[in-house]
Please model this.
Amino acid sequence: MVLVVSEEVREAVDARRPVVALESTIIAHGLPRPRNLQVALELEDVVRREGAVPATIAVLDGRPHVGLDKQQLERIANEDGIRKLGHRDLPLAIAAGASGATTVSATAQLAALAGVRVFATGGLGGVHREWTVTQDESADLGLLARTRITVVCAGVKSILDVPATLQRLETLGVAVAGYGTERFPGFYLSDSGHPVDWTVRSPREVAEVMRAQDDLDGTPSALIVANPVPEEEQLDPDLHARVLAEALQACEERGVTGQAVTPFLLDHLVRHTDGASLSANLAAVRGNVRLAGRIAAAWTGM
Model:
């Protein structure tokens, strides 16, 4: 595999300057055009304002790229046929010469290969509801169990089974800490209703945990920094509960299963909250990207 690392990212990694990895699925599949490109450029600008280098990740014509220029971002945002790639899809996409946007698992894997330690995203995947029947679990969890990267996120998507996901992360040995909170955030919501065992309160504290991970030199695994969306920007909890219940019922009635469940539920939330869920999502992503830039600066400054 030829990993294409942009000159700016490569120079920053070599000089131990702060770099933040960004996924591209939100650009290609998470937002309508032309807003998707606007948000992609905005998030890169947020990283730069924190003194870090943005490294948006995608696969273009079978070549994994860590760090995209504006023309490449435009391709991901506007080109038809851009695939959605998890880490399992990477060898297939490379061999086929395909182009695709990377999910959490693929982004984390490629970032780690490029030497980028900090990654910002919206919400992680996790254990799906009715797991005992479907055995449906996101590939994010297994990949993070064997990849040394720090992921700043707003918890896991609230459409998932949150307590089961937290239990699964514990079983896999993935460290989870709330940022400035003792409650695990719920993506659109500041509080999923479940606690976290550990709390970190500054970028420096996060960097110290990262250093301790390296000093222990154990099995490579991720650090999840769960950063809640501000309460004033979260989706109204009552609205969230009502619309999610309706979405789950609609999903069952229409026989939606497998990989189609998550996009169906997320789309239902956007449409039936008049876009409020999308606004909360973007607020969470912006906050995570900002924090990731500060953590990357603290990490490289140690």
The mean pLDDT is 94. The CA atoms of residues 29 and 110 lie 19 Å apart. The longest strand covers residues 53-60. The chain has 13 helices and 13 strands.
